[in-house]
Amino acid sequence: MDKLIQKYNIAGPRYTSYPTVPFWDECGISSGNWEKSFLKSFNESNKAEGISLYIHLPFCENLCTFCGCHKRITKQHSVEKPYIDVLLKEWELYCNIFPSKPRIKEIHLGGGTPTFFSPENLQKLIVGILSSSEKCEDYEFSFEAHPNNTTEQHLRTLYELGFRRNSFGVQDYAEKVQKTIKRIQPFERVKFVTELSRSIGYNSVSHDLVFGLPHQTKESMIDTIIKTKSLKPDRIAFYSYAHVPWVKGVGQRGYDENDLPSPELKRELYETGKKLLTELGYVEIGMDHFALPTDSMYKSMIQKTLHRNFMGYTASKTQLMIGLGMSSISDSWYGFAQNAKTVEEYSELVNRKILPIAKGHLLTDEDLIIRKHILNIMCNFETSWEKSEMQFPELSSCLEKLKEMETDGLVKIYPNKLVLPENARPFVRNVCMAFDLRLLRNAPTTRIFSMTI
Length: 453
What we know:
Strand order of the largest sheet: 9-10-8-7-6-5-4-1-13
CATH architecture of the largest domain: Alpha-Beta Horseshoe
Oligomer: single chain
Strand content: 15-25%
Radius of gyration: 21 Å
């Protein structure tokens, strides 16, 4: 396996979208084109399944140097109210365009640090969103949280608003690792917010862990998993650290790259974590995720309804996802649109009653076919071209690129489908790359992606 890791550990996309952001059309997308795209999706899906909202809350009090998110570092909480006001204005812009009242199936608060905001301001935001919409019967509201600043009032306020799932960023419990990535949080604090969430009534508590961080060792990974075992979260996101300082800048240049685990050790960290999590009763879901059999994500995997988008894996798929807030990305299935990346530019456009789109992409017919294949591979570790609508002219050449991986036992190719064996799941991004026509036609000359394994 070590030889295969060395062979296939190359830079590649994580496929939270197809096409991936670097390959969106240079001409981008106009507000008018985006409006047509999301209206088409809204008209097709709002009544049947509802829509999803991703709300980006970008503020953090401190910079965690491993982080690759779009954020704004500040200790000035006076920024909260103006930002909430602009978010509600942006939502009003969409509601004024929708031909009927939107039905909300999913809300996810991401960041940044959503719990940077006071419970009162989060309540104002959600009440404002729901005042002009309806909730689907099977709605699912979730939020990301920092264990250090999540209070009982945060948890109770969001629970009363309908939130039943939360996710705490743990990363690693080793003191040396925490100091290096500037994310100091005691185990006791994570224990407190996890147990309090359950006592309040949250039915899904998730922990984010990261492997490949500076100074991580096999021993420290085992210790982190053992501590996690004692809390037994319903879901665990076990992410590979993406070291891309050429993209994320000064934060990820806060330590020497020699402090990072070697590719071989990084893989061992993953395999060690996976083995321990499996022994604890967790089931691997897609890429980077584990869940208990009682969790909705596991049930979604079994039913083959698991979906992947800019929020990662979700058990609650909708055709239309609207992203609110600076840098948020919306997905109409037929197109993507990303908001302006600074708070100032985003706010200025919204206050002028303009949808704050900075760039985007309208999918071609070819894009839609490839997107389906990549989603199938990322979510189900298989895809099929038996139906004519899943075929495309370059299919044979894409499969030819996988012949070497087939020889190495990492993919099984049949006349009308391909399947990844369980041992090949760490290489899922490599398999997707063989279908990525935009990447194959226009390979980047500079490094823009993290390593695949």
